[in-house]
Amino acid sequence: MTSLRFVFWFLLISFSAAAQKDYKLWLQYDKILNPQVAQEYNLTVKGVVSLGNSETSKISLKELENGWTNMLGNKIEIKSKIEGENNLIIGSQSSLSSDIQKTILSDFDKISNEGFIIKSILLKNKKQIVITGKNDVAVLYGVYRFLRLVQTNKSIKNLSILDSPKINLRVLNHWDNLDRTVERGYAGFSLWNWQKLPDFIDQRYIDYARANTSIGINGTVLTNVNANALILTPQYLEKVEALANVFRPYGIKVYLTARFSAPIEIGGLKTADPKDNAVANWWKEKAKEIYKRIPDFGGFLVKANSEGQPGPQNYGRDHVDGANMLADAVAPFGGVIMWRAFVYSEHDANDRAKQAYAEFQPYDGKFKDNVIVQVKNGAIDFQPREPFHPLFGAMPKTPLMMEFQITQEYLGFSTHLVYLPKLFQEVLASDTYQKGKGATVAKVIDGSLSPQKLTGIAGVSNIGNDINWTGHPFAQANWYGFGRLAWDPYLDSEIIADEWLRGTFSNNENFVKPVKQMMMQSREAVVNYMTPLGLHHIMDTGHHYGPGPWVSDLSRPEWNPTYYHKADKNGIGFDRSKTGTNATAQYAPQVEKMFDTSETCPEIDLLWFHHLSWDYKLKNGQTLWNGLVLKYQEGVNQVQEMQNTWNTTEKYIDNERFKEVQMLLEIQYKEAKWWRDACLLYFGQYSCKELPAGVEKPTQSLEYFKSLKFPFAPGN
Ligand code: GCU
Fold it and tell me: pTM (2 decimals)?
């Protein structure tokens, strides 16, 4: 009995320790194992002096204390004033004494309002380190950066770091419904517990804020773009206010989605026509009511006249009318309107990929100053790979906000290990050529190509109430990487992976090196086993789980995978060149020219832009059919390599996370084979060709794959 009880307690303790590891994200603050490194830290920092006393300053101090104690194994002395040497001095510019100010004065000109300075200085001949910025939130960003240096075992001896975010609005978009289901969410239910709010403040809200601020995220849209007007009623606003109060000291603003028909649904009006005075007034009053509760409310995100959502077009008005009317309502309070350009119409027979550009580009320069147009990274919908959206660079007089999807709707849900910052970086580094060479997407969205008052980037959140927040331990890296790229869209995704691995798992090179490599190849692997060579939108319908290239009977043509791959006896691919829908003409001439002919089109985008015969010769000399098949096989092989790599890591990390990832990789392997077999059987009917050597034969029939049903698929 006693020993049984012991076993029980042992299991319970080890379970909760493991759960904590999963929960703690990249802020593990694990004990530093390298004695030289620990010694350097202990010698360089002997005490902390915090000069501020705001809520935010208290968070900075607590975070430092907690991080330091855990990593160094000894408490750091908190001092009330600067005495002796080797102190860490934290405080905003105005809190610094004049002698400190003097040593770093010119640096303040080099940082923005949110930027920070971490600097080793000599003060009366004594060595100190200062972490400062123009306000307390900027200091907190600096504190997190300092802690990251320690977490990643970097030297802190001679510091001179000046860093400012390059993008103003760095926000998560939660597609969370009020009943706590999450659209396209694969990590449990919504964090926001509307029933218990406002009185019950879940520790999760605080830890969510910590995690976000540690990577520089400064905004959160709490609700789904497919909006529910109820969120704008006092009953809910009171709860939103409670969340805003939690997030404020962390520098995170709250935004809500605005359902365009709200004036009718909750306001008792007969119309939601943006040109109707009563409607405009209703929104003005609503804004006033919200700002009274939440003076730093960020503003509204709006999905209008898209996939059945109401919008200005219901009243014969356009997107500019709708956005500007809402912009007027929030402008007196400094709010912004994030108006989405994700539109395609059932009444437009045009290539879906062309519709957002066709509709929005002519509006360039017509939106009010506090409107920012939110554009998905590609013109279809967050596919494993899409060429960059042609709107980037094509609306120089309008701020455009990037929308990435962190949740893996089309990339294997939270079961597949896919490191998305690689994808994000590929898009950000794409050259639009809109003002000649070097006009990258990153330069469009950070306003360096055409100056903009507002700049922004949004990531559709992959967060839910699962213990590990994101469903897959490695999906945490996608949240992390989004935040880092939002701060600096020029960062290298490999460096981000390195930081993340060290903060989350271990600094051991034998672990970091191979696992980083595994992460870096994971994005290409998913492209290979799902949609190689520019294929897209061939997933199964509704839930989007698994392959469905055969689907052809949905009411709207552009919902069907057959619309996108156009496979027939003659070949495969969507002709978007001059001989087809001419979508290529939406790009700058240099890009258009490159995409327009199959010889110059990068092969990764080949079938996105061209319909080619099965015998078309690829650059490596293979026929298109053979090349396609081999890519599917390569994807499967890559997952196997990922498994092999992971299996070597057991001795470096905790058993629980090791096992979790191992099981998930096994599912990924199974599903990669499923994608390969289903797609090859389906396309093989048209190519009528054999599988080339080196490719495994499918073990099931096409009919079997078509018959599969998934009533349990989440996120629908
Ligand atoms: C995709 C997704 C929807 C979502 C939509 C959007 O179509 O499947 O669930 O609402 O994008 O971004 O608005």
Answer: 0.97
